[in-house]
Structure formats: C-alpha cells, structure tokens
Specification:
With 269 residues, this protein is an alpha/beta fold. It folds into two domains: 6-72, no CATH class; 94-266, Aromatic compound dioxygenase (Protocatechuate 3,4-Dioxygenase, subunit A, Sandwich). 22% of the residues lie in helices and 23% in strands. The chain has helices at residues 6-15, 26-33, 40-48, 55-62, 65-72, 181-188, 245-251, and strands at 94-95, 109-118, 128-132, 153-157, 163-169, 174-175, 194-195, 199-204, 211-217, 236-237, 240-242, 257-266. The chain has a six-stranded mixed beta sheet, with no helix packed on it. Strands 5-2-12-11 form a four-stranded mixed beta sheet, with no helix packed on it. Strand 8 and strand 9 form a beta hairpin. The longest helix has 10 residues, at 6-15. It is globular, with a radius of gyration of 20 Å. The two termini are 37 Å apart. The relative contact order is 0.17. Residues 9-17 have low confidence and may be disordered. The chain binds fe (ii) ion. Fe (ii) ion (FE2) is lined by residues 85, 87, 198, 200.
C-alpha cells in the first residue's frame, strides 16, 4: 500500500473497513483511512504509529472507546473486562501455581490469591491465567532495559478448585505515553496522563469467554481519574495485612505480609 498515492490509500482503506476487516488489518486500515485528513492531529497519530507504538490505540483508550467496547461486551454475572494496554506479551512462561515472581527485586511483596469460577460461583476446571504488571520503578520490562524481559509476568494453571496464587510486588501508578499527539490532546484538555496501579490478567477456561481485565489495589492514587477510564466497580481490591507464619513459610514471604484476593467469574462462551 505504501506505493499508492494518498487518495488511493484512502480508497483501499475504506474498502477494508467493512466485513473484511480483522484484528490484523484494522489498524493499518484506520491509519490509511486518515491519509487525506486535514486534521493535523490525525496525521500526527499516523506518523508516530509503529509496530511497537500504536498512537491510535492510545487515542482510543484516552477517549474511552476501548472501555466502551469492554463495557458493551460485558456479560451479566461475569467479572468486568478492562483495557489490555500495550505491555502484554504472548510469550510469558508457564510457572507452577504458587510461584514467586519477586526474585529479590525492590517493591512491597504481596501474595495475590485468586479463584476462577463461572457466573454462579462454581469453580472452573482447566482455568489458566496470564499475568503481568509493572515493577516498583513504575516501568514494564519493555520500557526498562535493566529488567529481565520476563520480569513480573507469567502464565499459570489453576488447581482443580479454580484456585491460583503467586507472590509479586505491589504495582505502581504510571503515565501513558504523553510525548506524542495524544499527550498534546490531554494537555489541551487539562487532563493528566496517569493510570492507577493495577495487575493485568487474562483469565481463560475451556467453554468460557476469555476475560481481559485489571485488578486495582484499593489504596492506589488516580482510581477516580484513570487516564484511560479502566477502573470499574468490582475491579478494586483491598490490600490486607496478614499475620500467618505458615502461609508465609510456604510462600517465602515474611509474616506479616500483604495479600490481595480476587474472584474472577467467567461467562459461558
Ligand atoms: Fe498497565
């Protein structure tokens, strides 16, 4: 498509916005559809978009479109979905249920305990999680060459009761990228670019809809002003202080320790 004049790019893009569009082609179709726009903001978004950075995805997030899609696809009784964000990796390693992801790094240790159920609260066999978060310096591995690329992310199989646990650190608030046109829009709107602290999870079980969501520590800053509108009622958790030497010994944490507990409920596919 790059050899086409802009007017032809737009025609091709418009022909791709109907039933032929899919997840692999929608972004290039949208970018090309703005080839003839007179809006400097849109051409700026297109010019900064690469394989590693998608300014249109960020634009969708800060306009609330991503959250609108999540909310409109919500199934009754299921845990609400929330934004995937730009830092998910397909190649996270499978680790044992109960794994410790901390590995001596900075941050406040926390035991994340979860269970995966159907919408009636029955545990789901064969459930899995895909987990990722940022480190104590607020950065994801993709933003920080000093982190192991696999830091604080993993895939894990739940036990037969749908339970999982892992040791990690409390995530930190962070800013969405604000050095491009979306950042300029936020500044013009007198909006900040911060997101509250969160854990990212994709929760799956055979026969059920995949859940892409986020879990927010209740005491995080910016819960009431998330730059991408990702906070939903029911996605916040208390960070409890637990004094239980037996659990501490099993998890290599020191008692008392911090713990969050979250129940994920999936809708039938
Ligand atoms: Fe995130």
């Amino acid at each position: 498509m790059s050899a086409l004049p802009n007017s032809d790019k737009a025609k091709v893009a418009m022909s791709s916005t109907g039933r032929g569009v899919d997840a692999s082609s929608v972004t290039s179709a949208v970018v090309a559809s703005f080839a003839n726009t007179s809006s400097a903001r849109m051409t700026d978004c297109a010019s900064i978009t690469t394989a590693e950075r998608n300014e249109f995805s960020l634009l969708s997030d800060i306009l609330g479109v991503s959250s609108l899609v999540d909310l409109q696809s919500h199934q009754p009784g299921a845990t609400p979905g929330s934004v995937l964000g730009p830092f998910h990796n397909q190649d996270s390693r499978w680790v044992e249920n109960g794994a410790n992801l901390i590995g001596g790094q900075a941050g406040e240790p926390v035991l994340f305990v979860g269970e995966v159920c159907d919408t009636d609260g029955r545990p789901l066999h064969g459930a899995t999680i895909d987990f990722w978060q940022n480190a104590a310096n607020s950065l994801y591995p993709a933003q920080d060459k000093d982190q192991d690329p696999h830091n604080l992310r993993c895939k894990m199989r739940c036990d037969n009761g749908g339970h999982f646990s892992l040791c990690t650190v409390i995530p930190q608030p962070y800013t969405v990228p604000y050095d491009g046109p979306v950042g300029a829009m936020l500044t013009a709107a007198k909006r900040h670019c911060w997101r509250p602290a969160h854990f990212h999870l994709i929760v799956e079980a055979p026969g059920y809809r995949s859940l892409v969501t986020e879990v927010f520590p209740q005491d995080s800053a910016y819960l009431d002003s998330d730059a991408v509108f990702g906070v939903r009622e029911g996605l916040t958790v208390n960070v409890d202080t637990v004094n239980d030497p037996k659990i501490a010994a099993k998890t290599a944490l020191s008692s008392p320790f911090k713990r969050v507990h979250f129940r994920f409920q999936l809708a039938r596919a």
